[in-house]
Amino acid sequence: MLNIHKLWLFSSLCVIVIVVLYFQSEITRLEEAYRKLEYKLVQSHSDSRQFTSKDALKDDDDLVVIYNRVPKTGSTSFVGVAYDLCKKNHFKVLHINITANMHVMSLSNQYKFAQNVTKWQEMKPALYHGHMAFLNFERLGTSSKPIFINLIRKPLDRLVSYYYFLRHGDNFRPHLVRKKHGDKMTFDECVEKGQPDCDPNNMWLQVPFFCGHAAECWKPGSPWALQQAKHNLVNHYLVVGVTEEMLDFISVLEASLPRLFKGATEHYLNSNKSHLRQTSSKIDPSQRTIDKIQQSTIWKMENDLYEFALEHFKFVKKKILLRETNSVPQVFFYEKIRPK
């Protein structure tokens, strides 16, 4: 009798778990559907009350966007969306390939690149992407400036992902042998033994990517580099999203730059681009390892930039994707135009 009671109790718990999981999946599906519907409503409401001049449309065709993508921040997934949309939306996507995967260009190449990007009319409108540090076009004397966008990721997550990527590769090119192939040491073991591959100094990448080409940007732990990175993020980037909120990043870009990203949100939701490149055999670090890494100055500074970027992104997307307190989406339009 007791066994029957236990079996009945276990069966009831299983049914409850299944029901809860079902409703959780349905809630997630409905939230995504609601997000798509709300975005379309905001977009249609905005489009119906705004006016676009012929000159503005022409300027859109002169658009150049540079995505100086930080490694292991979900950049392949995002670029995959751009490549899928480029033919439909009539723009070019170009990968910037720098010798030996260098992140900093020589001074002569900085100038040539800036002149080329801004004057190559046949390639406009365009999205350029590559693993390169921010480049200040004002300093290089160009008559026009491209628009910069980027993604940033929690620094320890990015380091752990890169650590295992070098050993096991990813599902994007699973047969490509990486330079640490065969090394089975876990990240926890690496930290415990004090190996160079998991040195906190290796996290010093997102700060210099936003800081730029100055020598000081690449000195691990430089306070000046961190402040310059924050300055550039706010003053020279149109949008900087976070990897953990990729969908919102894409939706903000669609609302801000529809010339390139029209339809990007729906495409991302309905395609397999959300996890295009995942590191294989990644093991999450232990709490002991996390605590040790977070004691380092480099982690604190990189995390400072991440938190700064996250707060700024939340502010930006609130004005675009989320409704105000009066439930009315923000638009701008022109009226009282004189003379008639």
Automatic annotation (TrEMBL):
This protein's membrane topology, according to the annotation, is:
Single-pass type II membrane protein
- UniProt superkingdom: Eukaryota
* Gene source species: Euphydryas editha (Edith's checkerspot)
Q: What is its main location?
A: Golgi
Q: Which UniProt keywords apply?
A: Disulfide bond, Glycoprotein, Golgi apparatus, Membrane, Signal-anchor, Transferase, Transmembrane, Transmembrane helix
Entry keyword annotation includes Transferase? yes
Q: How does it assemble?
A: Homotrimer.
Query: What's the protein here called?
Result: Heparin sulfate O-sulfotransferase
InterPro entries cross-referenced by the UniProt entry: Heparan_SO4_2-O-STrfase, P-loop_NTPase, Sulfotransferase
Any Pfam family hit: Sulfotransfer_2
Its family remark reads:
Belongs to the sulfotransferase 3 family.
Picking any one GO biological process from the record gives:
heparan sulfate proteoglycan biosynthetic process
* Record's keyword annotation contains Lyase: no
Which parts of the chain span the membrane according to its record? 7-25
Molecular-function GO term, any one: heparan sulfate 2-sulfotransferase activity
The compartments listed are: Golgi apparatus membrane
A GO cellular component annotated for this chain's UniProt record is: Golgi membrane
